[in-house]
Write a sequence for this structure.
């Protein structure tokens, strides 16, 4: 005798439940978690097909692909969480080539015992970020590791995008005379994370700047299609990004400290933590390098976009076989802005 | 930022720079030692040397707590950290100081030692409270600035009857180091280290006051100007030293009046006197054994003294032969005089301690100033 009850499956307990080894075991529990969480939140035509891969048509042109693993601690921080961060991070890596990001893939490594409520919150945040950015998560994977072998959740996302015809943006294209622009205040993400860290908890109104930058990039390309370089200054901050670009482009740079936008609260937090905002991570900012003739137009386009309101021109590219990034200090002297030594703080993204 | 940006004002800096340029006599040189690593850092970070006339030479002193810690003491800490179940708490900079056998606390941590980076001695006490089943040792280093917090940690541990907490004390004393430099061969006999005056410590002086430096001004006829760690403080102190030297005066002056008094912080000094006593001798990197230059935990607090508790014995270990940290810490050489500077010895792979802390002379020069050593093909202003 059968009744409707035979087909009843008790739903995943997202209120009090925890991740256990069966959620990654390939069996019914895993299928149920995928159905009730990932499919439901990310819902789109590719995921609905239930294949191990997503198939999609692409137009002709240059494709770009980028991947980024996220291990941020704590998982939830002022202004965001590991979920939206993992969407923004990869979208930005794709967008820094000038490409329009199209699709994302997401891999989750979950630790046994991780609260399902937290997982749901993270996946919902990812889904919201992906919807807002119009870049769907079209395929994914979930693994579970034993308690103590992970730290809650690690998320790896991979993205693909297509570069519009005629756009050539790369880290080796900066030339002497070019102008260096930054899209807004630096150090916000790093300070927001640090404010919650176990042994340096402090109160701040700073929130992470985590954001998807492809809309800003599209507006910038429309205004100045000849942009030479774009890069998002994440780990290692602005200083590291400028040093990377100087090395890649075989040039030097001179920037002016007083032109670099920094929120006063970020400055204050860095002051008492003994950090330099130039090295603190960002998750919603970019550095652009363009010909001097394009600089004003590009800056105006950036400032007209909500994510570039505080954009500024901070310096210029020079000839220097040593690839030094020099900075005129607000105080009136000049020094170099070097590569970061060691790490300022681990697991910032 | 209120109360900080005011001391980094570029327009004011140009005014002080103009005054220094106007008052410094072109006929003479002014060899000024900034004792503290904090000053060394500020001078490099703000590009202060660019604002000074050529006759003024800044000599970096030994006041960097991480730099003066000898290899043997780091070896002791690493050996402690290797004890099963023991948690070693340390200030961050100490983690990367090279020790014997290619080790450092950072490398010992990677090999499994439980070494925790703390921002305050209070964090170490908290960790001891949270782990009553584990031995917790605080690796205490630093000059008079960090000593009172260590005293507080010991008193707090006693109050809490923490049986698992102790301090490996390596606190050192500023006046002893200044005296050692002024008594050195290079200054007194050889004349290879011309030393006309001192910029006195900022934070150290908030604790000990300006009075301890009066002896150096009187006995050695060297002016001392105590200065804050902001770049304008340093500029102002240089101007005050130039004036003293021009007038033939050798006095203790206080530029850092917003924080330093003649007598210092009585409460902090009392705490230190309660818990610590002078060591007969202590080895400094660069300066060697310096009598009565460091503190140890008093017998009354032996329960919290890691040296007594674990029977730590000190063994002196010579620095790497190629390393010039010793001479650099005495002000006899500059980072660029060292053969391994910037080649074998870099902040990523430090050979000597001066390349480790951001307050170290080598690290400061490498991080902020080494472009001046290289010929820049073109340097356009921003």
């Amino acid at each position: 005798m059968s009744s409707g009850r035979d087909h009843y499956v008790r739903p995943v307990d997202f209120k009090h439940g925890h991740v256990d080894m069966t959620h990654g075991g390939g069996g019914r529990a895993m299928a149920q978690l995928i159905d009730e969480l990932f499919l439901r939140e990310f819902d789109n035509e590719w995921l609905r097909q239930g294949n191990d891969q997503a198939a999609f048509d692409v137009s002709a042109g240059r494709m770009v692909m980028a991947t980024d693993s996220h291990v941020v601690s704590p998982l939830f921080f002022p202004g965001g969480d590991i979920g939206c961060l993992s969407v923004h991070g990869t979208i930005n890596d794709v967008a820094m080539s000038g490409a329009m990001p199209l699709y994302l893939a997401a891999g989750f490594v979950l630790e046994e015992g991780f609260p399902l409520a937290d997982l749901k919150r993270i996946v919902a945040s990812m889904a919201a970020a992906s919807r807002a950015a119009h870049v769907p998560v079209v395929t994914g994977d979930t693994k579970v590791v034993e308690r103590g072998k992970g730290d809650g959740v690690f998320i790896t996302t991979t993205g693909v995008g297509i570069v519009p015809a005629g756009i050539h943006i790369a880290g080796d294209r900066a030339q002497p005379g070019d102008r260096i622009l930054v899209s807004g205040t630096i150090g916000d993400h790093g300070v927001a994370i640090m404010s919650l860290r176990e042994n340096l908890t402090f109160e701040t109104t700073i929130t992470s700047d985590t954001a998807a930058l492809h809309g800003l990039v599209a507006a910038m390309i429309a205004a100045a299609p000849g942009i030479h370089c774009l890069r998002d200054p994440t780990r290692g901050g602005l200083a590291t990004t400028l040093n990377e670009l100087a090395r890649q482009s075989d040039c030097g740079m001179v920037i002016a400290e007083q032109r670099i936008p920094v929120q006063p609260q970020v400055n204050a937090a860095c002051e008492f933590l003994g950090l330099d905002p130039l090295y603190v991570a960002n998750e919603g900012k970019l550095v652009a390098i363009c010909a001097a003739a394009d600089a004003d137009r590009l800056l105006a386009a950036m400032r007209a976009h909500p994510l570039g309101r505080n954009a500024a021109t901070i310096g210029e590219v020079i000839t220097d076989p040593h690839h030094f990034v020099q900075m005129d200090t607000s105080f009136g002297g000049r020094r170099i802005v070097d590569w970061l030594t060691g790490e300022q703080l681990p697991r910032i993204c | 930022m209120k109360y900080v940006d005011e001391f980094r004002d570029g327009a004011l800096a140009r005014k002080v720079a103009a005054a220094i340029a106007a008052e410094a006599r072109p006929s003479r040189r002014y060899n000024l030692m900034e004792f503290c690593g904090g000053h060394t850092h500020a001078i490099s970070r703000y590009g202060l040397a660019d604002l000074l006339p050529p006759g003024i030479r800044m000599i970096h002193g030994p006041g960097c707590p991480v730099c003066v810690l000898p290899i043997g003491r780091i070896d002791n800490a690493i050996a402690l950290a290797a004890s099963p179940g023991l948690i070693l708490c340390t200030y961050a900079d100490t983690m990367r100081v090279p020790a014997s056998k290619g080790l450092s606390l950072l490398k010992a941590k990677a090999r499994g030692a439980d070494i925790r980076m703390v921002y305050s001695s209070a964090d170490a006490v908290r960790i001891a409270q949270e782990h009553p089943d584990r031995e917790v040792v605080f690796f205490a280093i630093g000059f008079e600035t960090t000593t009172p917090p260590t005293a507080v940690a010991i008193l707090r541990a006693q109050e809490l009857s923490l049986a698992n907490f102790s301090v490996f004390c390596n606190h050192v004393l500023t006046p002893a180091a200044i005296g050692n430099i002024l008594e050195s061969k290079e200054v007194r006999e050889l004349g290879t280290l011309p030393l006309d005056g001192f910029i006195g410590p900022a934070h150290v002086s908030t604790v000990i006051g300006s009075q301890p430096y009066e002896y150096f001004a009187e006995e050695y006829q060297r002016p001392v100007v105590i200065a804050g760690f902001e770049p304008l403080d340093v500029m102002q102190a240089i101007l005050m030293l130039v004036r003293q030297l021009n007038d033939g005066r050798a006095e203790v002056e206080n530029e850092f009046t917003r924080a330093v008094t003649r007598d210092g912080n009585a409460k902090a000094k009392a705490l230190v006197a309660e818990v610590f006593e002078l060591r007969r001798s202590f080895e400094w990197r660069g300066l060697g054994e310096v009598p009565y230059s460091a503190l140890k935990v008093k017998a009354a607090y032996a329960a919290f003294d890691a040296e007594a508790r674990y029977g730590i014995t000190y063994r002196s270990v010579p620095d790497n032969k190629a390393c010039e940290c010793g001479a650099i810490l005495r002000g006899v050489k500059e980072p660029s005089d060292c053969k391994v500077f910037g080649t074998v010895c870099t902040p990523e792979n430090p050979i000597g301690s001066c390349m480790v802390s951001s307050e170290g002379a080598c690290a400061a020069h490498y991080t902020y100033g080494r472009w001046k050593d290289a010929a820049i093909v073109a340097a356009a202003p921003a």
